[in-house]
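Good morning,

Attaching, inline, the backbone tokens for the sequence recovery test we're adding to the shared suite. The designed sequence is right after.
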């Protein structure tokens, strides 16, 4: 049993090695246009396999990785909220909501029917998989559109609107899902009136109270606090200018909001998303986003690495049918759900571009599955967890490979 100073030194060594490996993985995979999160997952899986031989991941070490992973979730969802222009989305609601409805209803419906009725999974695991696969990882496709210089096109702007609204819907459904946990566990009788009184009403009240708190924070407290921290370092020294930036204050507030959300029954991830929406309305949000990038790059890999540590590859034995079905519905749900309706408002090429761009699943999908896994096998078994995470990684690899030639073909057609 490793204890005391030796344990601390081991932790420092492991975290240091993990950071260096994550940087090398990110640099290497970006050169071949593969999302770094795939490498982070593989790194976590590799560490877990190495531990099977060396046994260095003691419970305290795993707790540290779990804690850093939690900070990674908070950083990840804060960034999602920060990049979600809520006012802009509301203005574009009529334009994007039609496609969003098809995306959510068809993708979610196809996933639920396939898992619950075809594969015969229990209700709760089917619901977790359904909500997990509704969310789109906008960052994966956006990077491809940016490299093709097509993001400023009408289709590119529409993609951003749909994908951001898609994430918001998935986060809302995730929050409601966790509010319904007492019903699923049998603590509340499955009678609609009791569910409404004991679960849905308190959930809506919490949303309202937490939303009002965040609104007050943004309207009356955020800018005065930010300006106060800016004045703490008046030195014009260029080396110290980074200290003037109030990003550490912002990070502190984000952690506080996330913790409060967890304490009142939401998850810390949802609280971080709310915090992102709060600061996203600040005219200096771009500055926050740029300053936050370093902390984001430090914490977020640990979330995916921690997921990789939880993957149990031996559980994949006999799960080929589950994996095949999930892979099919992950692609068809978005391509048909979004692209099919896009045929009504645009051409075939535009519909296919939008459909394929919505296929990648990453951040929200993995957060939902990670939270479900924490509840135990009755919610998300190790087999379902590992299979879904691997399918998500596959969508992140394959979708850009399909999307690039489609964008090139579309640009040649329009030129």
């Amino acid at each position: 049993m490793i204890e005391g100073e030796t344990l601390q030194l081991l932790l420092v060594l492991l975290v240091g090695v993990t950071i260096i490996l994550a940087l090398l993985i990110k640099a290497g995979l970006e050169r071949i246009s593969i999302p770094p999160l795939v490498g982070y997952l593989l790194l976590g899986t590799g560490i877990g396999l190495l531990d099977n031989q060396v046994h260095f991941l003691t419970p305290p070490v795993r707790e540290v990785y779990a804690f850093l992973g939690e900070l990674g979730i908070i950083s990840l969802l804060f960034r999602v909220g920060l990049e979600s222009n809520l006012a802009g989305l509301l203005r574009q609601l009529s334009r994007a909501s039609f496609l969003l409805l098809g995306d959510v209803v068809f993708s979610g419906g196809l996933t639920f029917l396939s898992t619950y009725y075809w594969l015969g999974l229990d209700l709760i695991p089917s619901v977790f998989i359904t909500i997990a696969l509704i969310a789109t990882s906008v960052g994966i496709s956006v990077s491809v559109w940016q490299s093709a210089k097509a993001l400023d096109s009408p289709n590119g702007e529409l993609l951003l609107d749909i994908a951001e609204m898609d994430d918001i819907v998935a986060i809302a459904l995730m929050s409601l899902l966790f509010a319904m946990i007492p019903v699923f566990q049998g603590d509340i009788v499955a009678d609609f009136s009791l569910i409404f009184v004991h679960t849905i009403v308190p959930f809506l009240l919490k949303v309202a109270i937490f939303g009002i708190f965040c609104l007050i924070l943004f309207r009356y407290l955020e800018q005065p606090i930010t300006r106060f921290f800016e004045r703490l370092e008046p030195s014009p020294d260029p080396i110290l200018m980074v200290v003037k930036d109030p990003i550490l204050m912002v990070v502190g507030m984000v952690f506080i909001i996330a913790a409060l959300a967890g304490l009142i029954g939401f998850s810390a991830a949802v609280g971080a998303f709310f915090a992102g929406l709060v600061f996203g309305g600040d005219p200096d949000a771009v500055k926050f986003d740029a300053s936050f990038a370093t902390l984001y790059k430090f914490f977020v890999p640990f979330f995916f690495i921690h997921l990789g540590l939880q993957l149990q590859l031996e559980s994949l034995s006999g799960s080929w049918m589950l994996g095949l079905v999930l892979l099919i519905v992950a692609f068809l749900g978005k391509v048909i759900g979004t692209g099919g309706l896009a045929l009504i408002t645009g051409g075939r090429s535009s519909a296919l571009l939008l459909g394929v761009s919505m296929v990648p699943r990453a951040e929200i999908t993995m957060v939902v599955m990670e939270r479900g896994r924490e509840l135990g096998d009755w919610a998300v078994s190790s087999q379902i967890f590992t299979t879904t995470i691997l399918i998500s990684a596959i969508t992140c690899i394959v979708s850009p490979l399909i999307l690039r030639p489609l964008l090139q073909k579309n640009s040649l057609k329009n030129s």
